[in-house]
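Page header: ASSEMBLY MODEL / two components / 849 residues total.
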Amino acid sequence: MLRYIFRRLLVAIPTLLLLIIICFLLMHAAPGGPFTSERKLPPSVLANIEAKYGLNQPLFVQLWDYLTGILLHFDFGPSFQYKDRDVNDVIATGFPVTLTYGTISFVLATVVGVALGVLAAVRHNTLLDYIAVGVTFSAQALPNFVMAPILVIIFTWQLGWLPGGGWNGGQWQYVVMPVIALSTSYMASIARITRSSMLETLHSNFIRTARAKGLPTRKILWRHALKPALMPVLSYLGPVFVAMITGSVIIDMYFSTGGIGLNYVNAAFNRDYAVMLGVTILYGALTVLFSLVVDVAYAWVDPKIRY
Amino acid sequence: MMISARLTIAGLLASTFLASPVLAAGTHPVTGEPLADDQTFTYRVLDEHSSVDPQVVEDVSGSEIVRDLFEGLYNQDADGNLVPGVATSYETNDTKDVYTFHLRPEARWSNGDPVVAGDFVYAWRRLVDPELASPYAWFGELMALENAKAIIAGEMPVDQLGVKAVDDHTLEVHLSQSIPYFPLMTTHASTFPAPRKVIEKYGAEWTKPGNIVSNGAYVLTEHVPQERSVRERNPMYWDNEHTIIDKVVALVINDENVALTRYLAGELDRTEVPAGQYPRLKKEYPDEAISFPRLCNYYYTFNLSPSGQEAVKDVRVRQALSLAVDRKIITENILAGGQPEAYTFTPAATAGFTVPDVPAASMTQAERDAKAKELMAEAGYGPDQPLSVNLIYNTSEAHEKIAVALGQMWKQKLGVQATIANMEWKTFLEERGNQNFDLARGAWCGDYNEASTFLDLMTTDSGYNDGKFSNAEVDALMNEAKTADDPQPLYTKVEQIIAEQAPIIPIYHYAGVYMLDTDVGNWPVNNVEQNWYSKDLYKKAE
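Prediction written out in full:
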């Protein structure tokens, strides 16, 4: 197992390198540059700026400088857009915010989603099932960019209970709405996947055998049904977790949370090359890491899988 | 519990004592209005500011912060007139190419150091220094500072810049050409002084709260990127006594509808009104929804370069397309924020500018449409030979609505097939800059409040003339206007040529459309550049 993990981590290095190179080239291929603006800069001013940031060098030199900067100094470069900050700073301030609301949303979506799904499956075709299915379908139909402004209208304007945005160091009042807006549709998906997989499991032969030998329902559920039923959920949770902790531009946009998601999208629009690359590397590394975690978790859940 | 309670009370007392404004909880010294106890002004900004370094900042929201943190030679008052800042007066020579500014001796940095002429020399050299590579270095060239051009090009050392400190309180500026309105330019953020000691000590980190030292009415006390920035009263500011607002909070809210909701919930004192919502808000909140003219225009430019299609090089086609645009529909039904319709390039709000008579302005829309059809037919386009044009704009809801409306009007009235294409911002700039269009959206906000800031765009050499319009008479008139005692007749002539030649289709002129809390006093609605200073505002008691 350890050897497997080690091997996977080793493979991650060329994967990330390839990601950096592709992303770097794509970015430079996009029309316009970081200093293209409505007010076109005079050539001499532009030349000074490009010299300052090394943008006048050939592409491969820029790429080499960028890579050596990361490897030797852990320096991900400057932000062209926010000139008082560098990429390390952008990530260091944005990522903890996203990690916080992302993790809370993930735990909430998973716990509530799985519980709702199991409940609906166990009480299949009862009123409870219909309610659960109804709730999850409507939750999934409500995208977060619709939900976010509605939440602000209800909780901030009409009721006056919660602040309409900001982060304030992660004080709970500021976390509530982002978490609701981010977790709802994921929760619904998790509930639906759990429900159908649980139904399938409950109809399988080994459960019938367990019932036949007279095991109580609770024991059947916890000891026998839950683990296999969670297999498809688990493979869904890996990418969902990465998506949640790497941020949602919608949440950052509507709630001014200052997370990394908005920085990422802005960087793309502004051709803020280094920020864009820095966040891509972060996303890439997290994706590689969590797909590994999911694979390891598989082995734990499913005894048939051995590495 | 006891300890923390006592600490809190002590903290409160201390902060009240320290920050205690001379005037809060009293009455306004001029108007006599009762003032609110809490003098905090909170407003919405669309995006995170680019920087608060005066020589580096390049965006509007950053400049608003910099104007509060730093003070230049001159400020603007509520009407946009020049009022003394660090300078108390100036003299100039007959040729208006040497200016001597006298600085007030009581001006202080927030660390207590005196503000001296050397701080301006340092800042202005910094502005043009290739090493700093400021995106606003061109402003040094625009100001015509002696040798600025050569220094930016790296051909001369920075100490050759035409600015020197005669003594601590006298600043002498040498220009490479005569500029009668030079002092107006010293209200621009890039000309504000910079604290040399602090910049040398902290390097790029100098603008962080805690490190930053500034000479304006406020100091930066908090900055949470993409969320908020807070500036608080600078007790060292020379005119602190007359400053009323204690604290200014800028909240970054990307979505304008969420910002509006948060305004209505009382979280903000000011926000922008989303396009189309002004009439409803004016009805519901008549005292809070305000609209006033701004110094910006909105237009479409024809591609007159060799890459443009032949049809749009026919002046009759350009005239027809311009005449067929029903500006009223755009200003009243799409934008609906009190924007004036435009028939000239320069907005009526521009100081010292009288809008000239151009034929289209006084016609009814029916007359314009009839004339447009006539011109199109003359040019040889009609149902049998329909004209096709492509039109580009950058992605935005309002731009899209306008582009669709234009296409629709041309199709209905003239049978023109318009292909409209939206593009992401940088792609759009690249395409427009490379003349890959027949018609492209454009907008311009004045760099300073004088008609040449707009009309210069129509000259052949202008770097912003993406339509590549070139007219020798316009070039000559604009050149003459630079030194003319009364440039208005020249500007009138230029506008008339633009109306005749129609290199652009003026659509509308901007309006500032805000929701502004009635508690906020002295918002400068008459300052068309919207150069506002928190130190001039106040909050009335409810």
